[in-house]
Write a structure and sequence with these properties.
116 residues, mainly beta, six-stranded mixed β-sheet, four-stranded antiparallel β-sheet
């Protein structure tokens, strides 16, 4: 089970940190991803991290602004989001795997709204 938290309403230029806690899985064994879905749009892969946290990658739309990380001792995945823009408004979900396979376990998502 994956449970996200940390979403909310933030002004343009602001920051948020999302968390995703894994339960019932051997979290440290899995590569992980963050994805997002904006209203009326398809799912967009945002970032991925390998099992030990040593390798990461980002979509061009967030590169340089977002940072993915993990704490395997706490079974937790993070996404630090800086310099947020209105186009970052979406539901953000954590997903097991990188790349993401069909049917991969995912959380219910957390809403991020960037607006003045």
């Amino acid at each position: 089970q994956l449970v996200e938290s940390g979403g909310g309403l933030v002004q343009p230029g602001g920051s948020l940190t999302l968390s995703c806690v894994a339960a019932g899985v051997t979290f440290r064994r899995y590569d992980m991803s963050w994805v997002r879905q904006a209203p009326g749009k398809g799912q967009e892969w945002v970032s991925g991290i390998n099992a030990d946290g040593g390798t990461t990658d980002y979509a061009e739309s967030v590169r340089g602004r977002f940072t993915i990380s993990r704490d395997n001792a706490k079974n937790t995945l993070y996404l630090r989001m800086n310099s947020l823009m209105p186009e970052d408004t979406a539901v953000y979900s954590c997903v097991q795997g990188w790349p993401i396979m069909p049917g991969a376990p995912r959380g219910q998502g957390t809403q991020v709204t960037v607006s003045s």
